[in-house]
Each structure stands twice: as C-alpha cells, then as structure tokens.
Amino acid sequence: MQHFTELPPLSLYIHIPWCVKKCPYCDFNSHELKDSLPEQQYIEALLADLDQQLASVWGRRIQSIFIGGGTPSLFSPESMDRLLSGLRARLNFPATTEITLEANPGTVEQARFEEFNSIGINRISIGVQSFNNKHLKQLGRIHTAREAIKAIEIANKTGFNRINLDLMYGLPGQSVGEAMGDLQCALALNPNHISHYQLTIEPNTLFHHQPPLLPDDEQLADIEAACRELFATHDYLRYEISAFARAGHECQHNLNYWQFGDYLGIGAGAHGKITHGDQQNIQRSWMIKNPREYLAATNQTQRLSGNKQLSDKETVFEFLLNAFRLINGFETELFQLHCGLPISSVEKGLQLAEQKDLINWGLKEIQPTELGLQYLNDLTEIFLPEANE
Fold first, then answer.
1. Do the strands 330-331 and 365-368 form a parallel or antiparallel pair, or are they unpaired?
2. Looking at the 3D structure of the chain, how many domains does it have?
3. What mean pLDDT comes out for the span 75-80?
4. pTM
C-alpha cells in the first residue's frame, strides 16, 4: 500500500493541438489548421480547464511550464500573454520558473519571438529535425535548412538564453556522414540543449502505413557512437537517453517527468498525474483529444476523457519506465518518496536486472548500465505489472 510522506515537485503542461501540416512520422495529438485559429476561445477553455483542477493542487508551487503541441508558436504573443497572465493569477510560480514554448522553424518571426521573450517565456524548443533539405522533405517538414538556421539565430538575437533543438537521426536513407553533418550544423549554432533521438515508426502515422527504408541496426549503432563522441568533444553532457545539455541547462520540465514528479495537464489530449496526500494515491487523467469537442465542453466532466488510480504495480512500472532513461539513474530514496513504496517492493526485479548486467544496484542509487541503456525495453519489461503477477 502506498504511503507518501511528502508530495513530489509539480509542473504544468499545456497542449496547443494545431499545426500547419501533419508530419508523416508524428503520432502526437496534432491537427492541421484548416481555418483561422480560435485563439481567444482556446485560451478561455485552457483557463477554465485549469480552474477545475486547482483544488487537487491547492497551495503547491509550480516548478516548470511547458507549452507543447502541435505548433504553439502559431498563437500570437497577445494570446500567450493572456494565457500567462491567467496562470499567474491562479498558480504559485516565481518569475524565474522555466517556461518552454515549442516552435516550428517555418513559423518563426523576430518580432514575435521578441514579444514571447518579453512576456516571460524564457526557453524555446525548436523542431529542426534535420539541416538536410532532402531529409526535411522526406519528413514532411514545412521549413528549409536555411529557415532552421535563421530561426535559431533569431532566438539567440532576441534574448533567449535557453534554447533546445530537436534533431532526429536514423532518417530514410541517412548515412553516418549525413547524420554527423546535421549534428555538426546544430553544434555550430551553439544551443545549450539538444534533444537527439532516433526516428521510430509509430502506429496511426503515414509512415506506419507507407514505411520508408530506414538505416539498419549496424548503421544506427555507427551513427549513435559517432554522434556521442562529437557531443562529448563539445562539452555536452548526456543526462537522459536522448537529451544532451551544457552544464546547468538540463530541461527541468522533462527531468520532472523522468523523476516521476507530478504534473497538471490542460488542453486537448493533455495528460496529468497528481499525487494525493490526503487519499494516499496517485491519479492519472487525460483530456478529450478533439480540439472542437474540447472547445465545446463547458465543464471538467465533458473535457475529461478518462482517469484512473494507479495500482502499486503500475506505479512501480511507470516510475522505472521514466527513471531508467536517466544516465545516472535514481536514488533509492527518490523511489520511496515518489512511489510511496519501499525499494524492497521491487527487489526481485532489481535482482534479475542486475544478474543480466542491465543495472548497477548500489546502497543509495540504482543506475542503468550501458547495456541497460542499449536494451532499455528489455530492462523495463522486467517490471511490467503482468510480469509480476
């Protein structure tokens, strides 16, 4: 039975579901923009959504805010200002709180970025994916390599000192040299954070129905090894399986996810996870995905698509699914604090993982080995709820 002695850190995720064009690899809740953006109506719906969740987190401090999508930068600075003003009136977070906005290079304008920065957005995440026009076209991106470079230069020029670039590898027909070229171009632009992740084919995407020819496992291994070496020579620390940062610039919002912190989720399709100290349990919730239905809803019951209380086994699995992505693993004390369970509750699985050389199990911390990171699915499957019946 779960027993929480303190509540974990709390973040806020805001989902804005519209984009200019749906990419063939994307399985996020994003919808191509057919008409004008219902900005005012959606901001009002977001704040109404938040109002109806406030009781579950009353008095708790927000440690990070992430505005994702879709392409949130399609919204005007005026709309974002209304949103942030509404958040400040309802939530407890200092001016220094990390506030991230996702942006597509094809929608970046200098004046707009200057205004985003002036209203308090202090971190920009730019979805570059590649600096190769051939690969950008294959990925269905609306920007060119030159536009990607210009977007990053604008972000730097307009005062953002926290910039993330999303960069993919393992693209259709991509060679080791091409993957290295993408990374070299990204490093030359000097962002302080790069999310470097492999293209995977997800269900319910165009690529799933019309699969492109991707590099084989040997090519992928060569790409990964070469890129990690290049990151290291430029003083980027790999702190999560697909995240590299200069010292002090790790993404606080994502760290909260990976350390199994709590988060509110508002917006169409947004997910939330809240620990309830009074009830001694963890609740997950998720909003309806369709933006039109979300806007039409007048109360939380209509906006909510589902919710559930996590069992002990589900809690353990979700914690480890996230925490094993961290290169340095986690402290055993964190497991007890955020799961409300003793580390002995997963002793059998940890012993098996250690026997398979997938983890190093110390007195105070547990860390995935290089083999564990390479075979992360095998590691986490040991802790699946059905595997522990």
1. antiparallel
2. 2
3. 96
4. 0.95
Within this chain, do residues 124 and 215 fall inside the same structural domain, yes or no? Answer: yes
Region of residue 70 (phi > 0: left; psi between -120 and 50: alpha; otherwise: beta) = left
CB-CB neighbours of 316 under 10 Å = 22
Distance CA 205, CA 174 (A): 20
The pLDDT assigned to 388 comes to 58
At position 378, the amino acid (one-letter code) is D
- Asked if 151 and 177 count as a contact pair (C-beta separation under 8 A), the reply is no
φ and ψ of 40, to 5 deg: -60, -45
Query: Helix 110-118 and helix 77-90: axis angle, to 10°?
Result: 10
Residue 256: strand, helix, or coil: helix
Residues 119 and 19 in one domain: yes
Residue with tokens 């990053």: 152
Sign of CA dihedral 197, 200, 204, 206: positive
Report yes or no: 165 and 195 within 8 Å, Cβ to Cβ: yes
Residue 253 exposed, middle or buried by CB count within 10 Å (0-12, 13-18, 19+): buried
Which residue carries 């693209």 as its tokens? 171
pLDDT category, 363, cuts 50, 70, 90?
Answer: confident
Whether residues 51 and 190 share a domain: the answer is yes
Nearest to 13 by CA among 99, 118, 91, 112: 99
- Of 190, 224, 256, which one is at a domain's C-terminal end? 256
Q: How far is CA 276 from CA 4, 27, 72, 301, 355, in A?
A: 9, 31, 30, 19, 36
238 with 328, same domain: the answer is no
Range of the domain at 231: 10-256
Residue 347, burial from CB neighbour count under 10 angstroms (0-12, 13-18, 19+): exposed
Task: Write the CATH number for 351.
Answer: 1.10.10.920
pLDDT (0 to 100) of residue 389? 54
Query: Are 243 and 344 members of one domain?
Result: no
CATH number at residue 138: 3.20.20.70
Q: How far is the C-alpha of 387 from the C-alpha of 378, rounded, in Å? A: 12
CA-to-CA distance for 332 and 353, rounded, in angstroms?
15
Domain assignment present for residue 285? The answer is: no
Contacts of 375 (CB under 8 A, 6+ apart): 358
